Amino acid sequence: MLPDSTLALLKQLVKVATPEELIWSKGYIAGFLEGRNTPALPAPVAAPVAVKPVIIYGTETGNAKKVASGLLASFKKKKINARSVDIFGFDPLKLEKEELALFIVSTQGEGEFPLNAQAFYEKLTARQYKLDKLSYAVFGLGDSSYPLFNQAAVLLDEALTKQGAKSILPLVKADVSYRDDVQQWETALEAVFSGLQPNAVVAAPTEPAHSKTAYRGVVSHSIVLNDTGSNKETHHIEITTDEPVDYRPGDALGIYAKNEPAKINAVLKLLGTDANTLIVINGENKTATQWLEEKNILGLSKRSVKGIGALLNTHFADEVSDLEDLLSQTGLPQDFDVSALIALLLPIAPRLYSISSSPEAHNGEVHLTVTLNTFVANGIEKQGLASQYLTAFPKDAPLDFYIHRNNNFRLPDDSRDIIMIGPGTGIAPFRSFLAHRDATGAEGKNWLFFGEQHFVLDFYYQTEIQDWLTSGVLTHLDVAFSRDQQHKIYVQDRIREKAAAFNQWLQDGAVLYICGQKSPMSTDVEKAIIEVIASQRGISHEAAAQVLETLETEGRYLKDVY
């Protein structure tokens, strides 16, 4: 037994200690007792927690799934009987039989749900459910640079409340660096589960301050990497700054593109509005041109199109994407209010581009690898706003930008081997990785998979890559040029060809990276990797998928897909 004073002190220390501190203390006491030749007391076994939460994640690039997997693994270690499911295909009707649901959802583009979560939200808001017995919590993943920060999480939280479900914790709106927020959320959840703090509050920023540092530089160099005759127009762009830019390999550069004057004038003409007409919106007075310079008039979201259609008393097809297209298809009502339409338009969201340089190798410069995005809508060829803005940016003109930290896509320690899969502009961060490892003399081995359409026309950074291969910085190089033969070959085919070596690298501890288009590239590559793991290790497809998921949870499988 302990004296009352000692017992009170111990209780106070336990009350304020974190779980990690308690674990450390247990080990310290055990070691102390062993040092005194006193047998250590057996470690207490965690008692099972009565709650059985279902973790439901909605993800576009995989971050929400990663958070869900990590949370599930942590819960299992603590005897919390949880399960994790993809929101895609999950019927809201099933929530009527659940007692506790934990939602982890990301926000895409202009405040939209990820593709795999859109059907769930539409069903949830289409009818009334009996959710009065459901308790829930929502964790949002977003980027505070965007106007509608974590809007999907906000909408989901509101919809669940309207359905009668009870929130056990405040909505968490996490920014791009979300690891600390996840840990705080998990701690608060466990406190609620155990009944210690029924009204616990998460110490996470619900409206985080914008902490991104703004920079100004000039485009000092811009060249097309493709040769004449290519189907692509991919630019290597170098931005020079007077002040040092704080970034690391794996980070992205963010820009706020501006609408072309010709596009603005075309919209003004259709609106029958003079460029200098003063328009007041929410108490702010600007000219029509000034408003349209900063508003998104290209690639409108479904929400914007629907709102404009209601304002103009018409319905637009889903394919129509630009404001000019909408206005050219219908007349304006007699009492039409231009300010009402402009108010429906969202501010131009930032665009992110993976940085393809390394501060150790390219002092005073930031490099980008940008493909001009071209597409056809309503039979008209169009160009992406940001890619057109950057690829046509005047030389030596000032360019404002910021650095987007990507702590989920970092190089490991210098001795660790890495496998990089980056077709197309997915090569960008891996050029940064290789330049960094070359400049710092890192000892880890490097294996690169690169793909494009044609070897002669589309082998980006060919000379640099061959130099790294010759010098030994690049240990292995496998390329796939899909249209150089009748049967198309992609990077996933090269992975299958090198199955034994690929699997051995993973078993030896290599970190695996994928960068580039999410669909279909990253999906097809992941399928090939699972096939390789299954065949080489003699295990089932499901077990191989679990191996890859474990690698992701351990931080050895990292994706930057879009």
Compute the average pLDDT.
88
Tally of helical runs: 19
Low-confidence stretches: 3-9, 12-17, 32-47, 196-210
Helix content: 25-40%
Q: What form results from the Cα inertia axes?
A: globular
Rounded to an integer, what's the Rg over CA atoms?
27 Å
Q: How many structural domains are formed by the residues? A: 4
CATH overall fold name of the largest domain: Rossmann fold
Main β-sheet description: 6 strands, parallel
Percentage of residues in strands: 15-25%
CATH superfamily of the largest domain: Nucleotide-binding domain of ferredoxin-NADP reductase (FNR) module
Which CATH-level-2 architecture of the largest domain? 3-Layer(aba) Sandwich
Summing up helix and strand content along with how strands pair, one would put the structural category as: alpha/beta
SSE topology sketch:
Layout: H1 4-16, H2 19-35, E1 54-58, H3 63-77, E2 83-86, E3 100-106, H4 115-124, E4 135-141, H5 151-162, E5 166-167, E6 172-174, H6 179-194, E7 214-224, E8 234-240, E9 252-255, H7 261-271, E10 278-281, E11 284-287, H8 288-294, H9 302-311, H10 323-328, H11 338-344, E12 351-354, E13 365-371, E14 374-377, E15 380-383, H12 385-391, E16 398-404, E17 418-421, H13 428-440, E18 446-452, H14 455-458, H15 462-471, E19 476-481, H16 491-497, H17 499-507, E20 511-516, H18 518-537, H19 541-553, E21 557-561
Parallel strand pairs: 1-2, 1-3, 3-4, 4-5, 4-6, 17-18, 17-20, 18-19, 20-21
Antiparallel strand pairs: 7-8, 7-16, 8-13, 9-12, 9-16, 10-11, 14-15
